[in-house]
Amino acid sequence: MKDHFITEIQIKDFKCFDDFKADGFTQVNLIGGKNNVGKTAFMEACYINLSAQDVKSFSYALYDIKFRREKLNLLYNEVNKKEYIEESHNIFTKSNINKAHYSIDEENGIKVYHFEMVNSEHPDIFVNVNEFSFEFYNIDNINYIDNFGFSNANIVTGYASIQKRDEENYLNKILKLVDPNIESFKIIEDKPQCKVSGNYLNITELGDGVRHTVSILTSLYSSENGYLFIDEIDNGIHFSILDTIWKTILTLSKELNVQVFATTHSKECIESFN
Questions:
Q1: Which of 62, 107, 157, 243 is 20 to 30 Å from 137 at the Cα level?
Q2: Into how many domains does the chain fold?
Q3: Pfam families annotated for this entry (predicted)?
Q4: What's phi and psi for 146, nearest 5 deg?
Q5: Worst-scoring range by mean pLDDT, 80-89, 191-200, 239-248?
């Protein structure tokens, strides 16, 4: 196991977890179970724990998980940021990598955000809400894929990493297994496209399985020396190619030094992983 991988975590006061502990994590981890048992919440807590390297990255993680849950097409503005990060108050996570605690206090009738982060130059910070900038940023090699897959912009970034390694043919090989009609994959005018019968089509025209596969592979390259979280990993993917997907993830995660967490409620997906 690499030193930067999570092997154990404690989660308090977050979603369905009052006080939860788990350990024994490896490089690639699959969390299985029925719907609404906390699989996604568990991954979100791990994502927050790892992202909490300073106030801006911690705040981004709090905002990001709420925004993904809401699935709303709202403008990314300060009003929404404030609302979203305040709804996740009092979360506590402690792993072998980091301790991250966020709470909202009050001083003289004014809200004060309290950020506690072990992996930070400033591990204990209090910020008056009126002085908080709401300027966030995400950490490039900590990535989270929800049911909608990677955004086009993120796919473009991940594909650039594939190109730097001259491994475009590897992606094409996997995509042909997903859909034998696919000849190749390219980024054309900042849009992910696949060549089918001599014509390039946006991946949105080729079904959820193709887009999800592209999301998984490009995000692995984007997460080099970091972490990747994949919600409902089998989304849109036919059970007959699950073995291929898992072999690819196991191979690339080792090659790229990425720790992977994924969820599923599919029996076939769990059997394939095992």
A1: 107
A2: 2
A3: AAA_15
A4: -95, -165
A5: 80-89
| Residue 46 CB-half CA count within 13 A | 33
Alpha-carbon distance of 89 to 106, in angstroms, equals 13
Structural domain harbouring 70:
8-131
CA distance 140 to 108: 38
CA geometry: angle at 217 spanning 140 and 30, to 5°?
90
Number of CB atoms found within 10 A of residue 5's CB: 17
Contacts of 8 (CB under 8 A, 6+ apart): 21, 22, 23, 24, 25, 95, 96
Report for 31-35, 76-80, 109-113, 259-263: range of highest mean pLDDT: 259-263
Last residue of a domain, one of 88, 105, 131: 131
> At which residue do the structure tokens 């299985």 appear?
32
Per-chain mean pLDDT for the chain: 90
Neighbour-count burial of 250, counting CB atoms closer than 10 A to its CB (0-12 exposed, 13-18 middle, 19+ buried): middle
Tell me how far apart the alpha carbons of residues 113 and 257 are, in angstroms, rounded to a whole number: 34
The pTM score is 0.92
Structure tokens at 181: 């009609």
Strand, helix or coil for residue 241:
helix
CATH number of 268's domain: 3.40.50.300
Contact yes or no for 66/143 (Cβ under 8 A): no
Please indicate, yes or no, if residue 264 is contained in any of the structural domains. Answer: yes
Please indicate, yes or no, whether residues 153 and 46 belong to a single structural domain of this protein. Answer: no
d(CA 51, CA 45): 10
